[in-house]
Amino acid sequence: MNYLINDIEFDTLQRTLRHQNKTIQLEAKSYELLMVFIAHSKEVLSRDKLIALAWQGSVVSDGAVNKAISKLRQHFEQLRPNVEFIITKPKFGYQLSFEAQKIDTGGDNHPVHNNDVSYFSNKYAAWLLLSMISITIFIFALKSADDSEQFTIQLERITARDGLEYNLSTSNHAQLLFLSSPSEKQPKQVILKSLNDNVQQAIPIDNEHLTFVTLSPSGSTVAWVVQDNQTCQIKRYELTTHTQQSLFDCTDMQDVKLSWQANEQAIFIRARKNNASPYVIYKLMLATQTLQQLSLPLKLAQMKGDFLLAAHPKHDLIAYARYVESSLSEIHIVDSHTLETRAVYPLKHMVNAITWSNTTNDLYIADKKSLYRLNSDSGQTELLKQLSYPIESIAATSRKSQEMVLVSQYQASSSIQDYQLNTQNITRIFSNAALNRLPRSYQNGMLFISDMGKEHALWRYQDEQLTRLQLPFEFGFSRYHLADNASSMVFEKLGAVYEYNFSNNKLAKVISSEHQTYSPNYGMSTQEIIYSSNKTGQWQLWQYKKESDSHQQLTQHGGYSGYAYNNKLLFSKRNQAGLWMLDEGNEQKLIEGFSNINWLNWQLINDNVYFYRRGSGIWQYNLKNQIEQLVMSEPQGFIHQYYVSDDEKHIRYVQLQPMQGDVQALILK
């Protein structure tokens, strides 16, 4: 039997992997391991299960398992560089990235096999069977075509106001609640609109510091979050009595989002303690004010945790999206009454919005500009619609027995500005209708990430010429570090570190994904890379030396982003505010007011550290005289992505432009 894994052919009889004109012979353990992965292609296999299946339960060390996995990865890497065929699921195990598909090798020497018939020696019988199969497939195709014609999607514009309409929620009775923000100078409004008669009204609730709002399934109550720098409150407003009350003090939480339980006796909360902590899901019982934690991320060091939440409007089900790594996520289906997990479905992309169907147990999932439907029983997904602009939020309801999926979209754009430190003059360097981020300037030009094409890519802007860097994968929103002479850069992708050489436009993988790297920086030279990793169970800084191909752990008490300085190490920590110095094994905190928002966006130039303080701007800290000074006040629309030039005379920063967005309905017929 032969299998196709992505575009690599696996011959189980010859025990080979083949791609184009290149063939690799598998040794025994790689062959056995691959057969196990194929037999359990949709499972995450723990080390114990791999040992039981591939080593038949023999006593095997972790090192032997690591070596076998690494060897199999190397075989795939030789045939298809930069494609991840085996995914590491931290704390859980390993999984084959692509589903292996059986293929017919053709030829007379290969008898036809299936689950019911082992072998047809009679050619006429085989021909008759194939003819019957062909007819059946043809009839099924005709029926499928008829079915597809019966299913259509009709688009209907719901809002066309100035500014941005976002944060959608619906009731079971065709009511839509959303936030409307006409402009930066005008206050936002909470709007309730009936989709039956298009009558709408503004809900008179306190909108100062309002961050999130949601409508209950019955359409009788609105819950919202009011949060500033010091306090956080969850409140409710009764639409029938026009009364409001405080429900819960959420001061110890950040980035709070809500979803109503179907019977409206509880509210589910998605929140995190600070921007260094992962998101967690809670259940708040309204009658008793009891708060219960429902979910726990795979590990506390994860960046996002359980970051999206949706409760079913009619049944005791909740769904949440769990962050796995930069391009992998999971959908968890949980019984909201018993708190038992019903299903876990892996997705090979990130998710930016989820909601339940109002009529079935299907989920709608938004990924950038794409809207999918996920069958929560089978885990099968289908693409419903490819939209023109990114999706901000989604909600579902029914109108006249037809299901409607409401979608809020936005057209985000940002410009790159240049601030001259001596004169305080500001000049616009680059601007278009796209989202342009993470600028990095060098002597003759600038690099930045932009979604001006179909995906987030890295672009070079030099001598007023714009060029996209050609990479074998989507660059995404990846942090990258330029060498001092701008001859090369390093960045992380799926746990591996890549280096791009600008002189010959060559890309090379310098650290494999098994090291689970993040935030790589060059060390004292381009022959050293300082990176963070949680491969020991917590985030620490490591040093990689190219010449010796060796890795050395640098920190013992946490580290996330670091630079070499005069044979010392300057670094930030994942879960602790402050900038630290490591000198001969001794840690010293240098800057107290160095918040966790600076994990990855601070610089060391000569003897100066540049960092951001929310609400004030960019600061300079001199390592010799220990003097701090504000060098650039925070401008309007600043999203704390900046880069100080090597001569310390300019700051390139990102400024968000006013957004436009409307609400549309996809009516499923």
Task: Explain what this protein looks like in three dimensions.
This protein is mostly beta strands and 669 residues long. The chain has three domains: 2-103, Winged helix-like DNA-binding domain superfamily/Winged helix DNA-binding domain (Arc Repressor Mutant, subunit A), CATH 1.10.10; 151-410, 7 Propeller (Methylamine Dehydrogenase, Chain H); 414-656, 6 Propeller (Neuraminidase). Helices cover 10% and strands 47% of the residues. The protein contains four helices and 55 strands. The strands form 14 sheets. A five-stranded antiparallel sheet has the order 4-3-2-1-7, covered by helices on one side. A four-stranded antiparallel sheet has the order 8-55-30-29, with no helix packed on it. It has a four-stranded antiparallel sheet with strand order 9-10-11-12, with no helix packed on it. A hairpin with a 5-residue loop joins β51 and β52. Mean pLDDT is 85; it is low at 106-150 and 298-302.
